[in-house]
Design brief:
Order of helices and strands of chain C: EEEHEHH
Largest sheet of chain B: none
Radius of gyration of chain B: 18 Å
Chains: A alpha/beta, B mainly alpha, C alpha+beta
Number of strands of chain B: 0
Helix content of chain B: 55-70%
CATH class of one domain in chain B: Mainly Alpha
Shape of chain B: globular
Strand content of chain C: 5-15%
Oligomer: heterotrimer
Helix content of chain C: 25-40%
CATH architecture of one domain in chain B: Orthogonal Bundle
Distance between the termini of chain B: 39 Å
Structural class of chain C: alpha+beta
Order of helices and strands of chain B: HHHHHHHHHHHHHHHH
Largest sheet of chain C: 2 strands, antiparallel
Structural class of chain B: mainly alpha
Amino acid sequence: MTAHGVSGSPAVPERTVDAAAKMNRWLLECLDAVAELHHSNGDLSEQLTPAKICEATTAALLQFVETRALGFWVVDRHTHDFTPLFLTPAAEHELLIRELDSHIESGTFAWAMSQNRPVIVPATMLGNRALLHVMATKARVVGMYLAIIGGRRSFIPEAAQKFTSIALSNCASRLESLMLYSSLADHAKNLAAKVAERTRELERSEAKAKAASRAKGDFLASMSHEIRTPISGVIGMTELLLETALSEEQLEFARTIHSSGEALLGIINDILDLSKIEAGGLDIEAIEFDLRTAVESALDVVSVRAGEKGLELVCMVAPDVPSRVVGDPGRIRQILLNMLSNAIKFTEQGEVVLRVRAESDDGSNTLVRFEVQDTGIGLTPAAQAKIFQPFVQADSSTTRKFGGTGLGLTICKRLAELMGGAVGARSAEGVGSTFWFTAYLEQKPDGPEHGGVVSVDLKGIRVLVVDDNATAGAVLREQLVACGADVDVVDTATAAVRRLREGQALGRQYGVALLDKCMPEMGGIELAKQIKSNPEISHIPLILVTAVGQRGDRAAATEVGFSGYLTKPIRREQLQGCVSRVLGLAVDAEAGRSSELITKHTLADETARHRPRVLLAEDNPVNQKIAVRFLEKLGCRVDVVDNGRDAVEAVERVSYAAVLMDCSMPELDGYEATTVIREREGDGRHTAIIALTADATERSRQQCLEVGMDDFVTKPVKREVLGEVLRPWIERATTKVESEASPETPATDSSDSGSAGSAIDLEAFRRQMEEMDVGEMVEELLETFAQDAPERLAAIEVALSDGDAEEIRAAAHAYKSAAATIHAEGLAGLLRDMERAGRDGDVERARQLFTDLHSENSAVLAQLQQRANGG
Amino acid sequence: MASLAHLLRDPVELPSLPTVYVRLLEVMNDPYSSAADVGAIIGDDPSLTARLLRLVNSAFYGFPSRIESVKQALSVVGTQQLHDLALATSVVEMFKDMPDELVNMELFWHHSLACGVCARALAGERRESNVERLFVAGLLHDIGRLIMYLRDPEGARSALERSRADNQLLYVAEREVLGYDHAVVGEGLLRAWNLPSSLREPVAYHHNPVIATRFTVDAAIVHVADIVAHAMLLGNSGERFVPPVTPAAWDRLELDPSVVTSLEEDISRQYAASVLAILRDE
Amino acid sequence: MGAINVEHVREGMELAADVTDRNGQLLAREGTVVSDSLLRLFKMWGVNTVEVVGEEDTAEAEGGALAPEIRTEHEEAARDLFRHADLEHPLTALLFRECTKRIAHGACNHG
């Protein structure tokens, strides 16, 4: 029994010291062992196994606790059973297993699991003790440690016990780490395998996607026909609908459907084009064509719109650009149209200039550069960057403001690339933009010049160009210089007059002057008046240069005394032709109303031949013309009067083989005239009178017969019918009827079908004329119509202001048939309505109709104007 | 009302640990002593021996076989652990027969035992090496109150009345009325008893565990154990309300709340056994 | 079916419920027929009671569910005790529930 628990009495200090020293060493060893344990934790090399970890722990444990046998059991994650991992020495395996089992049975095993310290109990083998210690981490039980220790020592020192706890806790952590680590390695391997598999999958799906995209492209390309057909059907049907009798409202709706249909077709075409290109299905043609013609035809299409907006449309083709090339004119035209349309769309004032030049030339191929420059709203730098990407507009507001799919420029890009070129844009916001594209074209210098007119030689001729727009002036100059002319350009009327007088005075006269109609201070017409009133220079031939879409120009031009008339954009041949003709032909200033302007469409002279003489009484000039043509084809000579009174007088003077009498004419209509003629005839010579009437009813027939007409022909007149009806009367006359002349096939002007403006169905008109075998009369008739139209409209206006219903009716009626003849359907319809209103006495309604009538009339005239001077 | 200093000043006035335990403590603190020495001291005190054996053979300890001797107890339970249990039983012995005026002693020890058992269970869940020490810390966490009742009944009563009047936590009322609380007093007592800081810190900071310096985990354990004991309605040491948990302390334990539910059965069983073994000598 | 002490479990008995260890690890599923190795497993993991088909219930059973009205009353009492605690805290919430149960149980026992 001790008082203070200090072992040993004061009489044995050495033993105490020894014991103390031993204890100290022992503790230091303990600490070293702990440090060592800690150090080996970092070892996670490939060769590390759970058994190796247990081995290391064993070595540490054996330092401090005398152990006979020991074993490590670990928990199986799935079965939760404890399986032996490391047992030593080998000879004691069975012993250890049996020992553990006994403690499991007794419950000591389970109890030890809940402790975190060595549990020392008697072993089954007498004289021994068992030490059980759980191996656990904070998270879970990893295993169990069993050691069979000798019974010699009574107690294991606290420090040793503590060390055991530390070592086994450490062991548990390491086993857990190793397991997690190898599990991690497995996962990593697994992951690598998964990534490889996933990559293969992606490659497969990418291939699939590519195939799908190709298939889509193929599908779209082959479906293009299927898609376009119904749309074309809608458009076509709508056009037919527009030809029928429609109310104002219906007309408006039908027009809307038509333009929507065309817009839709445009979009579909764009999309199909793009997908075709993307699917690699678009082929670029390689045909011979004239580059200038292709360029000029693109200009034609957009010139109306440019004129309407008051924009100058200028074209400059450099002389070094080959005329004859091999390429795809359609695609070049497509790109040009797109860029020109855009330029016009986004420009409110100023000009749109198309420049074509040869950027490089290797002898057999030329890189041709096309630039469209405008003074429009421009693009921001951001917009410039992406403008050629699909579905991109400059900004979203432009879509709303200006419309469009955003595909146009993308298609241009692709097309240009397919043609071996590129596209690009330069712009300054608020100043303007330049869109360009290049195409690689093969030269074909040996081919014949296409386009009709051979280059004219204007050598020695001095030309004065008067235009306020520098670019336009420069273009004209270039074109004329190319023909050898000596050109001066001035930009005001005052300067022009001065120059002309100077030239006259100095003996270096100007052979011709080209005057732009629209100039700020004084326009071309005013200037012409001035020139003509100045005896010094009044003899100089003048050509009026005007933009498209300005009606009444012709009449004004003729009145003032212009010898020639050109509309912008001016084609080179046009310019050359007009100038040369103007110089070759003198102007008949006194011919009056019927003097002809030299335009492209000059009437062919006809030599009169000995033929039966027929009188035509028809007030409508168009119808007059048609009838005259028919009669001439039938071999007759025709005299024309336009009212009943003149008809009566003519019949008095001349013996006609037959008289074609229109039933409704001013002053004296057909019926009345016939009555008078018959009266005056008495029993004398009976002149055959054939009625021309639009009214095919029985009642009118009767009326004709009553007044003494011999036969009648309904309008629109068919040549064969006229021939049939006239033949007996003509044959009765001495001259023979000419057999049918060979039908002339008029040159089809492609601009008929592509014209802007559908006020006149030119196709239908041409067709009809051809059917009647007077196809060549189309131009003439249109011209006549255009000439008369202002008067006709004025007549209606007067009638409306008078409020005279009958006057209204008559005026509308007169104009209506002319309009109908040239297939100006809209106009004819409106006139029909007005005629009806007049007949019904509804002046108010007639007045309401006039607005529409006026605008439709303008549209018709615009179409005519543009067409006449462009083709 | 006594000041803290006054309360703890006179060691003679303070109850002292039984001699046997003092000796035990000396032996434990002596690096050259052995378990045999410890066993000898315990063995010399039959009542201590009896109490200890009763305790380790009860459901409190749950060892599957019967522990027959101190020597065996030392082996199975462990020297340090047995020593801690000896302290526990000794302290309870000391205060068992205190007057019941201000506090019901039985209820007080019930709560203290409950806290001790909870602390031990939580420590076991965390795989702490010496769970018995936590048992002792939990058992002694409110001992400061006993000293206050003994040495300054006036002050203690005022605090109690204030806590009831304001529906306030008692330890808050203590601070308000007296300027100190029972935790501080308890720490002072353990210091006077020369008990190590591993016991003192948890007791001192059981209401404010985050300011513990060395034994932060143990302080957190006792803090939570106190709350659980309150929630389980096991005894009462004067505090009516369940003290609020300090989230940082709970987080430090890294335990899931469901652990408390799973331990509940064990806690109940061990609590009941400890009451029988320690309080009632059964 | 009943819960019996693992010591009385014999080979061939059928488990009437899942068996888990103290930490909730699943050791055997309901319906498993007890084998020697399974018994060993139970002993290793310190499983004390097991529910088997057919046996009388000798282990302690838990109290039945409480009627809602009573629970509210006890909740009130518990709420009073917990008035200084933050019921949002996961631990506190759990303790609150347990406390309510205990109050009810106590009331039943005294009742």
